[in-house]
Specification:
With 347 residues, this protein is of the alpha+beta class. The chain is 41% helix and 8% strand.
């Protein structure tokens, strides 16, 4: 194995695969299988790294417009660990239900994303190596420094991705689990083009949601039946509300109760610019809130050892009248112990 960054800080491909290694014929098929998987897994991690670098450049191009549009406070702090988590999670983000709603992502990228998430579920120790659980120490950047910060994170991105690769290559149980679904043994195993588009969505969703929350925007949510903003045909006004396509899903309205100055048509601006989608921004944040993880890191493992990316959205969710079910926009779910389980919007 040649680890990422083995040559002058630049990822190096293990590109010498020799299928005619001289071994005892009785074990030749097994040796061939192992060597082939070692080579292809190395290749996959290397292409993943290069594609993440491209996602970093795409994310950097969006930062100025996001900040100018949403105008979060200049002293908004962002942890370097959260930046890295969001960027590296971009590939896995593609195969989430919210990621499936993103337009312009190649079918090949979606297929590779599914292979990665399956392999990580089979080998959760690899996921934990890439996204360490319980990591709290981190450099803090103010939001105006993010472009500069992204320019300096290449080594950290390489180290994080390489941590997963190193574990696969040095721990037999991790290797067997990661390769267990057979995807890396196929004639066309997973790899990514250097300029793979769509992997920046994890980061831009994180940045948009954090910027909105820090600038006083709450996502007020309720049932579709309680939405009063409708056109002459009785349809919910889509420029004001985003309604989840999920069965029994909620509708969300961006409500600016703090610093109410500016922000006309903010929902249309953040959705139509291609920085995020309603599925990623709202449904993800709601699941994160329901899981009680809103104060935690943006990428974790759930009880089934699957990557949980819902908390990449840091959108603050709220209800208008949590003490009531009778008012037009009230607690949208049954009370728990006599109270609405969701917080009120900020005053």
């Amino acid at each position: 194995m040649l680890p990422l960054g083995s040559m002058n800080g630049t990822p190096e491909l293990c590109n010498t695969y020799i299928p005619t290694i001289s071994v005892d014929p009785s074990i030749a098929p097994q040796v061939h299988y192992v060597v082939y998987n070692i080579y292809k897994i190395n290749r996959f991690f290397t292409t993943w790294f290069y594609a993440t670098l491209f996602a970093k450049s795409q994310a950097s191009d969006s930062i100025t417009n996001i900040i100018q549009t949403i105008n979060p406070p200049e002293k908004t702090n962002v942890l370097l660990n959260d930046i890295l988590s969001a960027l590296i999670a971009g590939l896995a983000f593609v195969s989430t239900p919210g990621g499936a709603a993103v337009g312009g992502i190649a079918a090949e990228t979606s297929a590779v994303s599914t292979i990665l998430t399956t392999a990580l579920k089979q080998a959760p120790s690899v996921a934990k190596a890439i996204w360490p659980v319980g990591t709290t120490d981190s450099v803090i950047y103010q939001i105006g420094q993010l472009q500069e910060a992204l320019g300096d994170v290449t080594d950290q991105l390489r180290d994080s991705i390489n941590a997963g690769l190193q574990l696969v290559m040095t721990d037999m149980s991790a290797f067997q689990a990661f390769a267990a679904n057979g995807a890396f043994s196929s004639p066309k195993p997973p790899s990514l083009q250097n300029e793979t588009t769509g992997l920046q969505w994890g980061f831009t969703t994180f940045l948009v949601s954090k910027s909105l929350t820090e600038n006083g925007w709450d996502a007020l949510f309720t049932t579709p039946a309680r939405v009063g903003s409708r056109d002459e045909n009785g349809n919910i006004k889509e420029d004001l509300w985003w309604c989840s396509p999920k069965e029994n899903g909620f509708c969300f309205f961006l409500n600016k109760s703090i610093n109410p100055k500016g922000g006309d048509n903010i929902l249309s601006k953040v959705i139509n610019t291609g920085w995020t989608t309603g599925d990623l921004l709202f449904d993800g944040a709601l699941t994160c809130l329901q899981e009680g993880k809103t104060e935690g890191v943006p990428v974790t493992l759930n009880a089934e050892n699957q990557l949980d990316l819902n908390c990449l959205s840091r959108m603050n969710l709220c209800t208008s009248h949590p003490e009531s079910h009778d008012k037009p926009i009230a607690c949208p779910v049954p009370f728990v112990d006599g109270k609405c389980p969701y917080p009120a919007c900020r005053d």
